[in-house]
Amino acid sequence: xxxxxxxxxxxxxxxxxxxxxxxxxxxxxxxxxxxxxxxxxxxxxxxxxxxxxxxxxxxxxxxxxxxxxxxxxxxxxxxxxxxxxxxxxxxxxxxxxxxxxxxxxxxxxxxxxxxxxxxxxxxxxxxxxxxxxxxxxxxxxxxxxx
Length: 146
Prior knowledge:
This protein has helices spanning 10-19, 29-32, 137-144; strands at 3-8, 21-24, 40-45, 60-67, 72-73, 92-107, 132-135.
């Protein structure tokens, strides 16, 4: 079994919860191609910087899902596009089933010192500037509290 941290926005975390689908852009084809049925995906919600109209939001772990399908391509718009790429539909998709939804999301920053896949603990968010990151079983268990 493989484990992946899936980096998404608050809006798309809701889509994942509702539709039980994870999708990425063509840019991440190599990464999502490593995903197989039975693998676990941890949904990591990106934080937001404080703006004039909203408070800052930290990064959270929202849920864990098991992949239930092979990789498929679907261009139906279900996800919110990135502001820099408004036509993006994240067409490379897998279906999911819930493993665990965290009623109280896990604050990711508190886990950083223990994460083996994050090499630079001071600039840790650099490890998450992509759609997906494969992680080891030890990191997976620390994140989900196993």
